[in-house]
Structures are given as structure tokens and as C-alpha cells.
Amino acid sequence: MARITLRNLAHSYLPTPQGDGDYALKELDHVWQDGGAYALLGASGCGKTTLLNIISGLLRPSHGRVLFGDRDVTDEPTAARNIAQVFQFPVVYDTMTVRENLAFPLRNRGRDAAYIKARVQQIAAIIGMESALDRKAQGLTADAKQKISLGRGMVREDVNAILFDEPLTVIDPHMKWGLRTQLKQLHREFGHTMIYVTHDQTEALTFADKVVVMHEGRVVQMGTPQDLFETPAHTFVGYFIGSPGMNFIDAQVAGDTATLPGGAQVGLGGHYAPLSGKIGIRPEHAALTGQGGLPVTIRRIEDVGRHRLIRAELQGVPLNIVAPEGQPVAGLDRVVFDPRRINVYADDWRVAPQEIA
Q1: What's the pTM?
Q2: Residue ranges in the chain modelled with pLDDT below 50
Q3: For 97, which DSSP code?
């Protein structure tokens, strides 16, 4: 296992990049702790796989260094980095049995037969393939082959890190939750450094201790699921995390008040220097009311089981509100925000409230 340091790292696929826009991965400087479970989360094309391939050694960065512990591995090939990698599509040997596929990385490293047998049995139980151990991989379904691929990635206990590149894409949706839970359990048991690439926020938030959110080649926030939900560092994080995402409304902010374009005022839970930007409020922290607050126009109501999602407009701006199941909404045409839950943004970046002496 290893602490992974990414020092002044950046990458362009162009031979002579001229500016920031030419970089698929914009400069970052991070330390990922030994034994941590990290998820790289973002939309397609945001730089997740580029960063993962740099860590694995499949790609050499244009700038910066990669360290495993105190060892600089920037110029070392993948084989010298002592990692396991699981790709989006299964990589298995069709002519081997499931047992032989799982045992292959251990036999390659000369482990004794008793250890291999026990370890293969343990991993087969985790991926739910104990009954298929003696079946040939050829002819198995795509999701079964991907489970073998996952098992091969996890079978070694001595790796510096295990890297997962969207490993559940071909897995049946009903099996995804179980496999994510098992990966998390494996992490707790053996403490491997794990890095998991996905565009699915549910996968990221249920797997990782720390989620690394990427947008247009840049890391915009690294934090716990709670950090990302409560205090998004960038408007993209607020929009991308949550279902639906955070509401954003243009505002002039000064002191503890935000003034909206129509002149309505919203109280804030902190004190800010004057700025022109946006306020962000989660649908869960907005509530319909019959008096006070701000007038809204309700466009439709969606019942999603545990709560109702109110699709409304505030001064022509779309606004989502979550109403608990059973709470009456008929006749309610105003909205109030929890001031403690309002975030303030300027140029898309969160502005922290000022300390009051």
C-alpha cells in the first residue's frame, strides 16, 4: 500500500500546448493517503481516466511528478509500480476456469498452493462466484466476466494501490449495489489504497471516503460526501451532486443579505463582503409555505415515493423544492430558505462567510 503524491501534475495530448485550454488535465497538487478509498467523479471527458492512467503508468504526464510513498515513479512502467487495475470492460482468459483466472496473479508471483487456494476461495465469495469456480470463463455473461476481472484486481494483498476504471458499467444494475458494498468491505478488511473512476455519483458517494470531483480537466473539490453536499466548493459540484442538484439564483450579496434581481431579499446565515454572484440552496433546504418568504409559481409536482419534488419558478428562475411525504402542498405558493444552508458563489467558486470579531 502507498501514499500517492501528485505534484504539480498536468497533461496535454498536444505536443506543444499553448494555453490552459490545451490541457486535458490542468495542474493539480494533491496527496492521497495510504489506505484511503478515493473516487474520481465527473462527466465524460472531464479528465478522470487521464489522471488514472498517469497514476497507473499507462501515460506519462506532460508536467509534474507522481510519487508512491517517497519513491518517484513518474518514469516507471506500470509493471514496476506494483498496482492492480480493473478496466471498464472485462479482461479475462476465456480458456481458463474462474478459479484459474483468479489464481493467475498469485501464481505469477510464486505464492504457495495453500495460500492461493484460500485466497481464491475468499475472493470468489466476495464476488459471488463460488459455485462457478470450475467453469470456463468462455461462455459466461459479460457481468460474470467483469466480476472475475474485479476478483483478479482484488486477489493480491501486497499491491500499492487498486485502480478501478468504471468497473461496474457492464454489471447488471441489480448487482451493482452488492458489489459496491463488497468492495467497501474489502477496503475495510485489508486497507488497500483504492481509486475508483466513475461518472455515477451514487457509486462515488457510497464507495469513497473522499470524492475527487473533476470538471473540464480540473479538480474542483476533494472532500467527504457530506462536504460535497453541504458546502460545494464550485457551482458544478452543487449541480452535479444531488438529485436534483443545488438551486442557483443570481444575487447581489452584502453583509447577511442577498438581493435577488427583482429586488426580493433573502437572509443569509453568515456575513459577506459586497459581491455580485449567486446563492445556492439545496432543494432539501427549501420549504413551501403559505405566508412569508418569496412568491413562487408551481409548475408540477412529482411523487417519488419518500418525498415529493416540487418543480417551481422563482421570478422566472427554475426552482426545485423537496417536500416530505405527507406534507400538504395545496394552496402553498411561497418558499422559504434555511439561511444556515445557503452557500454564496462568485465566479462559480464558493465564498466563505467572514469571521465576525
Answers
A1: 0.87
A2: none
A3: B
